[in-house]
Design a protein that fits this description.
By secondary structure, the protein is an alpha+beta fold. Helices cover 37% and strands 25% of the residues. The protein has 15 helices and 27 strands.
Length: 588
C-alpha cells in the first residue's frame, strides 16, 4: 500500500501502528474500513491532506478492484468534516447506494467503489468518547436520596402478548417505525459497539420523549453494572451528573421486568433538599436488555422538570405512558441482541486468532525443526572430517550446513515480508537485470536437480519504476517452486520470460515449467498462507509472499496449469511513469 504519512493502513508490524499527527482529534480518529473487497479488514486512517483513491499504485489509498478506475476519487478534510469527490470514474462513486459527485461524509456512511465497500468512521464526532461513568451518578443501595417508587412493572411476555388500547393504537404506527429504525441501527456496520449504542440511545430518547437516557452494561468478567453511553435531548446544568436509582436498576436486573417510576416532584416523601428533587427528575423508566441467553444490562430514561415548573400540575406537564414502556422494552431486546452479537463476534475472532496462531507456530516449528536437523547432520559430517583430517568430508558437511542456512534465511525473509504492510522501494531499474540475477542465483540449484533453466528476456525493454528487491524475491519464490515441481521429470525445463504488454501497459514476468501440473481444487488455494503442494519441503509462504509483493505494485499473479503438461505463472503490474512522485510516498 502507498500513501502520505497522514493515511496509514493498520497492519501487523509491531501490533497496531501508532498514528502520530499534529492535527485535531478529528484527524486522528477518522478512518475508512474495507468491509467488502480484496483488502477486507484493512483500515485506513485519514489525515488533513487530500488523499487519492483508485486502482493505480500511485494513489494514497489503493483499491485492488478491476471495477475501480485508476484515479477514482479523492477524500479531503474541510475544517472538521471530510468530503468525498468523484474524479469522473467509469463506474461512479456511491455513498449509501446513491451516486455522488461530491458528498460530505458522516459517521457510518458506506462508500462503494466498484465491488469494494468501505465504511467511513469519524469516532471523534461522537459524544460517547466522553466517559459515561463521569456523567452518571449511580446511587448506592439504600441511599437516602433514592426514594423512587415503582408504579408499573412489565415483563417481556406481556409486551409480546398484550394488545394496545385505543389511545395507544394511534401511536402504534409511530412505534413500529421506531422499532424498524432501531433494528436497522443495531444491524448497521459500525466501527465500535459504543457508536452503535450511542445512535440507538439517541433514537430511543427521542422516540419516548425523554430528556435524558443511559445504557448500563454488565461487565462480562465481574458482572458489575457500568454506564456505557449517555444521551441528553435538553440542555442541563453544565457538569451535572445524571442520578440513577441503584434500587430500580437492581430490581430490573433481578426480575427482568421493565419499570416506570413515580413522579418524584409530586411525591410527598421527597424532601426538597434531596438530590433527586434538586436534579429535577419527574419520571423515569428502566428496562432490561435481555439477550438470547443472558441479561446484558439495562436502558434507563427520565424526564426532568425545570426549576420554574416544579409546581406545574401533573396533567399539564405530561409523563411516560405504559405503551412507551412497552416500546422501550422492545428496544431493550433489540439492543441486547446487538450487544450479544458483538460479544460473540469478538469471541469468535479471538478463537480464530488463537487457532491461526497455533497453526502458524506448529507449521513454522515443523519447518524449523527440519532445517535444524539438516544443520545438525552437516555439523556431524564437519566434526567427523575435522577429527579424521578429511577435508573432503568437511567440505561435504559445510555444503549441507550452507544449504540449510539459505533455507532458514529464505523462511525468515518470507515471514518478515508477509508480516507487515510495506511500501515498495520504487526506483528506476532494468527489469531484465533483476530477473537475470534470479536466473544466475538459481542456476546451481537447477543443475543439482538436472533441470534446464532457460532465460528469454524481452529485447529493448525500457527502464521501469519498481522495487527491484521486492520483484527479485517474488520471482525467486516462483522459480524455486517451478524447479521443485519438475525435479525428477524427464527433460525437466523451467523457462523465465519478461516483457511489456503494449495494450495494457503492464510489465510482466512469466515462469513456465513442464512439471506434473496442479490439480483444479488446489489452484484456488495455492496463494493462501501455509498452503503448499510440496508436502514437508514447502513452508506455504512463498506464493503468498509473491502475491503480496505484486499486489503492492498494483498488479496480480495469475496461474494456468494442466495435469501432465505443467504450469504457467504470470506476474504482471502496471507501468509507472512518474517515478519521482512514487518514490516520495510512505506506507499506509
Amino acid at each position: 500500500m502507498m500513501g502520505h504519512a497522514t493515511a496509514k493502513c493498520i497492519g501487523f508490524e509491531d501490533g497496531i501502528e501508532k498514528i502520530v499527527d499534529r492535527g485535531a482529534d478529528v484527524v486522528k480518529n477518522a478512518s475508512l474500513l474495507v468491509v467488502q473487497g480484496v483488502e477486507q479488514g484493512a483500515r485506513f486512517e485519514l489525515g488533513d491532506r487530500p488523499l487519492a483513491m483508485g486502482r493505480d499504485a500511485r494513489n494514497d489509498i489503493r483499491i485492488l478492484d478491476n471495477e475501480v478506475s485508476r484515479n477514482h476519487c479523492t477524500i479531503q478534510r474541510v475544517k472538521d468534516e471530510f468530503v468525498l469527490t468523484d474524479r469522473n470514474s467509469s463506474n461512479g462513486t456511491l455513498v449509501n447506494g446513491v451516486a455522488i459527485r461530491s458528498h460530505m461524509l458522516v459517521d457510518g456512511d458506506q462508500i462503494q467503489l466498484g465491488n469494494t465497500l468501505l465504511l467511513f468512521s469519524n469516532a471523534s464526532r461522537d459524544s460517547w468518547k466522553d466517559n459515561a461513568a463521569e456523567r452518571v451518578n449511580l446511587l448506592r443501595r439504600h441511599d437516602p436520596a433514592d426514594r423512587s417508587s415503582i408504579v408499573t412493572h412489565m415483563g417481556q411476555e406481556i409486551v409480546e402478548t398484550s394488545s394496545p388500547t385505543r389511545d395507544e393504537a394511534a401511536d402504534s404506527p409511530n412505534s413500529l417505525s421506531v422499532l424498524y429504525r432501531i433494528a436497522e441501527e443495531v444491524a448497521r456496520p459500525s466501527s465500535s459497539l459504543e457508536q452503535s449504542l450511542q445512535r440507538t440511545l439517541d433514537l430511543t430518547v427521542s422516540a419516548v420523549f425523554a430528556d435524558r437516557g443511559c445504557v448500563l452494561l454488565s461487565d462480562p468478567q465481574s458482572g458489575e453494572i457500568q454506564p456505557q453511553v449517555t444521551s441528553q435531548r435538553v440542555a442541563g446544568v453544565p457538569g451535572a451528573r445524571m442520578p440513577i436509582s441503584r434500587t430500580i436498576v437492581d430490581y430490573v436486573l433481578k426480575t427482568c421486568q421493565g419499570v416506570r417510576t413515580t413522579d418524584a416532584q409530586h411525591d410527598t416523601r421527597f424532601d426538597p433538599t434531596d438530590s433527586i428533587f434538586r436534579a429535577g427528575i419527574r419520571e423515569a423508566m428502566c428496562v432490561p436488555m435481555q439477550g438470547r441467553h443472558q441479561l446484558m444490562g439495562v436502558i434507563y430514561v427520565d424526564i426532568t422538570t425545570p426549576a420554574d415548573s416544579f409546581l406545574m400540575p401533573r396533567e399539564k406537564s405530561g409523563g411516560f405512558r405504559e405503551d412507551q414502556l412497552r416500546l422501550l422494552i422492545a428496544i431493550g431486546r433489540h439492543t441486547a441482541l446487538a450487544v450479544e452479537n458483538n460479544r460473540y463476534q469478538h469471541a469468535f475472532v479471538k478463537a480464530e486468532r488463537m487457532a491461526a496462531m497455533g497453526q502458524t507456530i506448529a507449521t513454522l516449528s515443523h519447518h524449523i525443526k527440519n532445517i535444524l536437523q539438516g544443520v545438525r547432520g552437516g555439523s556431524y559430517l564437519i566434526d567427523m572430517g575435522l577429527n579424521g583430517h578429511n577435508e573432503e568430508l568437511v567440505r561435504k558437511g559445510w555444503h549441507v550446513v550452507e544449504k540449510n542456512q539459505n533455507r532458514i534465511y529464505n523462511l525468515v525473509m518470507d515471514m518478515l515480508t508477509f508480516s507487515k504492510e510495506r511500501k515498495p522501494a520504487y526506483q528506476q531499474s532494468q527489469l531484465n537485470d533483476t530477473v537475470h540475477d534470479v536466473f544466475e542465483l538459481m542456476q546451481a540449484r537447477a543443475n543439482e536437480f538436472a533441470v534446464e533453466l532457460r532465460f528469454e528476456p524481452a529485447t529493448n525493454l525500457p527502464l521501469c519504476t519498481f522495487d527491484p528487491e521486492g520483484i527479485h524475491r517474488a520471482v525467486l519464490n516462483i522459480v524455486t517452486n517451478a524447479i521443485d515441481a519438475v525435479e525428477g521429470s524427464d527433460r525437466a525445463l523451467v523457462k523465465i520470460e519478461t516483457g511489456l504488454d503494449p495494450v495494457t501497459d503492464m510489465f510482466w514476468v512469466c515462469v513456465t515449467d513442464n512439471g506434473p501440473g496442479i490439480v483444479e481444487d488446489q489452484l484456488q488455494r495455492i496463494f493462501n498462507v501455509f498452503e503448499s503442494t510440496k508436502g514437508a519441503r514447502g513452508t506455504g509462504l512463498g506464493l503468498a509472499v509473491s502475491q503480496k509483493i505484486i499486489r503492492e505494485h498494483g498488479g496480480e499473479i495469475t496461474v494456468k496449469s494442466r495435469l501432465g503438461e505443467g504450469s504457467r505463472f504470470m506476474l504482471a503490474w502496471p507501468r509507472l511513469e512518474d517515478s519521482g512522485s512514487a518514490g516520495s510516498r510512505t506506507t499506509i
